[in-house]
């Protein structure tokens, strides 16, 4: 059973998120919060596997709450709920330890997929979020975009062939177990590769690594075992 906390200052949004999640018998919503301060306290109390946070919750915003949760309860993966136009917040959250990003207007199935992925130790970037992040990074102009792509590819070129393969699958949102099955290796080997990839890329979490994979253009198409 995956234990989940929901944090949003709008009761209707919380109810909607709960309603979607409870359609999956393997997910249990153990707590709800209306602000970031309560979200952090409830995570400390209930120790859920996943916390779903709105970026703009009051008192302590979602980015600050995600960073505090990552620092004090690192076993809880954080998914940020965003809306279009919040690209700067997404980029900030990438550096704060968030493991997943979903657009509020996305398909309900994405919420369940994201929660399951993060609970399984994967990063989950909604395809819409990944596209928005890359588009936002490109918005500073063609020269800046070319520079970022070149820098991402240069960072990726510093990886071994196997590490690049792992990064491309990580960029698809696969967990260590799914990557292991895809590559026909043991999960411990994948875990070691992921740790090496994060260190070599100079990023703190899988979601940030996934953005590098998207920027470098090495993300592979989904496979049947990704589901």
Write the layout of secondary structure elements.
Layout: E1 2-7, H1 11-21, E2 27-33, H2 36-46, E3 50-54, H3 62-72, E4 77-82, H4 87-94, E5 100-103, H5 108-119, E6 124-125, H6 127-138, H7 142-157, H8 161-171, H9 176-183, H10 187-201, H11 206-216
Parallel strand pairs: 1-2, 1-3, 3-4, 4-5, 5-6
Helix pairs in contact: 2-3, 7-11, 8-10, 8-11, 9-10
What would your notes on this structure say?
The protein is of the alpha/beta class. Helix content is about 55%, strand content about 15%. It has a 6-stranded parallel β-sheet with strand order 2-1-3-4-5-6, sandwiched between helices.
Give me some keywords for this one.
single chain, 227 residues, alpha/beta, six-stranded parallel beta sheet, 11 helices, globular
């Amino acid at each position: 059973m995956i234990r989940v906390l929901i944090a949003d200052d709008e009761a209707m949004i919380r109810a909607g998120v709960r309603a979607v999640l409870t359609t999956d018998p393997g997910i249990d919503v153990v707590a709800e919060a209306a602000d970031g301060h309560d979200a952090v306290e409830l995570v400390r109390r209930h120790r859920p596997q996943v916390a779903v946070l709105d970026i703009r919750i009051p008192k302590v915003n979602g980015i600050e709450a995600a960073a505090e949760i990552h620092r004090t309860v690192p076993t809880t993966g954080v998914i940020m709920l965003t809306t279009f136009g919040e690209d700067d917040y997404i980029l900030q959250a990438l550096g704060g330890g968030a493991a997943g990003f979903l657009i509020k207007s996305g398909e309900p199935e994405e919420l369940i997929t994201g929660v399951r992925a993060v609970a399984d130790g994967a990063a989950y970037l909604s395809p819409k979020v990944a596209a928005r992040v890359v588009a936002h990074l490109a918005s500073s102009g063609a020269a800046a975009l070319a520079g970022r792509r070149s820098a991402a590819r240069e960072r990726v070129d510093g990886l071994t062939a196997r590490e690049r393969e792992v990064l491309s699958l990580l960029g698809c949102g696969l967990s260590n177990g799914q990557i292991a099955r895809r590559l026909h290796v043991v999960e411990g080997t994948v875990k070691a590769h992921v740790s090496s990839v994060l260190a070599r890329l100079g990023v703190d979490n899988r979601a940030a690594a996934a953005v590098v994979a998207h920027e470098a253009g090495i993300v592979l198409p989904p496979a049947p075992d990704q589901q």
